[in-house]
Design brief:
Elements (H helix, E strand, L loop, with lengths): L1 H21 L2 E7 L2 H9 L4 E9 L8 H5 L6 E8 L6 H10 L8 E2 L2 E2 L5 E5 L2 H16 L10 E4 L3 E3 L7 H5 L3 H17 L6
Parallel strand pairs: 6-7
Antiparallel strand pairs: 1-3, 1-6, 2-3, 2-8, 4-5
């Protein structure tokens, strides 16, 4: 009887460990056009899913066309679902900081407007503290030669972008924009973060 109880307890413990291992968390980043950034985060080990969308504005259920005007106040963002046992929030922040220019206000490359701002929408106090600490270190060491202007704000309602924005690079890899703008970012990712890739 003791053996059966021990076996049952072992199975329960394994099931609990497995369930905890399956627990996911969310991270939300805005770092310019979500077509580019979606392709980057989809390649990371531990990232379960990436949704392109809009956050931080004052209009419910905005369309892409509305967000592009800059009047809704939304940023193009990624909502990343990840397994913290496989990849940490700090790892995601590192990819975030190194995959765009966080020193340009409301601009990334040729894209200009508040919808392209560098922003972190945190979901927990720990995420807030890690993001603020990382940003402070970047500024203290003058890592970019200019001040980091990334906004760090509490998560707000997230609106999933239209279906044609999802998996954009995967579905349009041969398009000129993908080859000229996204592909170089992916090549950089493979050099800098090779150990973190799927």
């Amino acid at each position: 009887m003791k053996k059966i109880i021990l076996i049952l307890l072992s199975v329960l413990a394994l099931n609990q460990a497995y369930a905890q291992g399956k627990k996911t968390e969310k991270a939300t980043f805005g770092m310019g056009c979500f077509w580019c950034t979606e392709a980057i985060f989809q390649k990371l080990k531990g990232v379960v899913s990436v949704k392109s969308g809009y956050e931080g504005g004052k209009v419910a259920n905005p369309t892409y066309e509305e967000v592009c005007t800059g009047f809704t106040g939304h940023a193009e963002v990624l909502e990343i679902t990840y397994n913290p046992i496989q990849i940490t929030y700090k790892d995601l922040l590192e990819v975030f900081w190194k995959s765009h220019d966080p020193t340009t206000l409301n601009r990334q490359g040729a894209d200009s407007g508040t919808q392209y701002r560098s922003v972190i929408f945190y979901h927990t106090q720990d995420q807030k503290e890690l993001a603020e600490k990382y940003k402070a270190e970047l500024n203290a060491t003058n890592a970019y030669g200019k001040k980091v202007v990334t906004a760090i704000e509490a998560a707000k309602p997230f609106y999933v972008a239209e279906s044609y924005h999802q998996n954009y690079y995967k579905n349009n890899a041969d398009a000129p924009y993908c080859r000229l703008v996204i592909l170089p970012k992916l090549e950089k990712l493979e050099k800098v973060f090779k150990a973190k890739l799927k």
